[in-house]
Write a structure and sequence with these properties.
Layout lengths: L1 H44 L10 H9 L3 H12 L3 H18 L1
Helix pairs in contact: 2-3, 2-4, 3-4
Length: 101
């Protein structure tokens, strides 16, 4: 009986901790998104464009050659982006190339 009670108490505590952490992470993500929007407005106001990372010529060449997976890998290496972000960026590079074809 004591073992069952302890197990249930540990599960409840783990659930509470997990939900608390999820709420805090969500709040931090929202705050980061607001800061990114504000930074974007400041950059737009001053007419500052973010420089393109060095190595994008290689990514474009891989996209032109139809080597999408390699292009995503190289993009991630030069930018430090996550997989989903790199995939979106490479797909955005593919769109103008597909329109020209």
């Amino acid at each position: 009986m004591n073992t069952l009670f302890l197990t249930l108490a540990l599960l409840a505590a783990a659930g509470w901790i997990t939900s608390t952490l999820n709420l805090k992470v969500r709040a931090l993500e929202d705050k980061a998104a607001r800061l990114e929007r504000r930074l974007g407005l400041v950059l737009d106001h001053f007419g500052i464009e973010e420089p393109e990372p060095a190595g994008m010529d290689e990514v474009r060449a891989l996209v032109r050659d139809g080597r999408t997976v390699s292009a995503i890998k190289v993009y991630r290496q030069i930018t430090g982006a996550g997989l989903a972000e790199a995939k979106r960026a490479v797909e955005a590079l593919e769109a103008p190339a597909a329109a020209k074809a």
